Every structure is written in structure tokens, then in C-alpha cells.
Amino acid sequence: MRISRKKRPEKPLMAQHKRNKDLDYPQVLVIDETGKSLGVMDTAEAIRLTEERGLDLVEINAKSSPPAVRIIDYSEFKYQKEKEARKQRAHSHTSDIKGVRLSVRIGEHDLANKQEQSQKFLDRGDKVKIELILRGREHAKLDLAYEIIRKFIQRIDAIVPIRQEQEIQRQDHKLTAIVAKK
């Protein structure tokens, strides 16, 4: 299968607003930089007014009749909109399910590392799926496997308050449990 090497254009952070000469409406509703409505006027007259003030005429609402435009500094307006979009994107973290694999023969140091890793995932807002895979003769030590997962959950709970989303379940050669931060 051929891999496409074309660079896809990045999606803009915010919608593009028409400004000055790009406005193709016969009349517009003009709002000045203080937020006061100047009323409906011809687009050419509104552009002349903004050029006198050294600002830009930016489309705010194209769907209204007539379209609403504002007299503002476009670069400042664009900066504020991008800042809002970045802030919104930063707060829109969706929680994923991150996996941590244990074994019946896991050492104390490895268990501590897995605990730190789980704590980091939980602090970030993700859920943690704890898996313990049984191999060969380990199927005979099912009680030990359940105990390892229970102790691991208690160790995490001692540091980060958690709730158990899914109780310990057995699926063929695997024991799984899902925990999330309270």
C-alpha cells in the first residue's frame, strides 16, 4: 500500500472573517470600536470611515440582515480570537484509558514504577486499565493474581483517591480492572 507523503494543510484555529475590501455586501450594520451602533450604511462609506480612523472593518455576523461589521484593529481582534480558541482547546482534554500490565512474578521495584505511571495517568484525568496476564502454570495461582491486583489498587488509592470503574474480571488468560480518579 502506498503511503501518501503530501503535507496536509493545517486547520486554522479560528474561522476567517471578511474585512475591508473583502466585504461584498451593499449595506452593513456598523458597530464602532466602543460597541456603539452607528446604524445601517453603505459598505463603501463604512470602509471610508474606518480608513479615516486607521482601523479595519471586520465582519462579525454574516447571517444577520444586513450583515453586522465592527470597526476594530484586525490584528488585535485576530489575536484575541486565537487566544480564546487555544484556551478552549486546552480545556477540552478527553479522558483516555491507559493500560498498565502486571504479572504474577512482578518485582517490588517494577510495581513501584507501575504505581508512579498509574498515578501520572490519573492526575492527567485518564482512566487506568490494570491487566495481569497469566501464562502457563500461573493459571493455577489465580488467587495470587487477584491478590496482586487488589494490593496494587490499594497502593494507588493510598496516594490518589480513586474509584473502581470495573471490578476485577477474568477474560481467558487475563485479569483486568479499571480505576479512575474520584
From TrEMBL:
According to the entry, every stretch annotated as the Translation initiation factor 3 N-terminal domain falls at 20-88
Q: Give the top-rank taxon of the lineage listed in the UniProt record for this protein.
A: Bacteria
Name any GO cellular component annotation.
cytoplasm
Q: Which GO terms describe its molecular function?
A: ribosome binding; translation initiation factor activity
Q: Which UniProt keywords apply?
A: Initiation factor, Protein biosynthesis
Annotated Translation initiation factor 3 C-terminal domain ranges read 96-181
Q: Where is the signal peptide?
A: none
Q: Which family does it belong to?
A: Belongs to the IF-3 family.
Q: Which PANTHER family match?
A: TRANSLATION INITIATION FACTOR IF-3, TRANSLATION INITIATION FACTOR IF-3, MITOCHONDRIAL
Name of the featured protein: Translation initiation factor IF-3
Instruction: State the species of origin.
Output: Candidatus Magasanikbacteria bacterium RIFCSPLOWO2_01_FULL_40_15
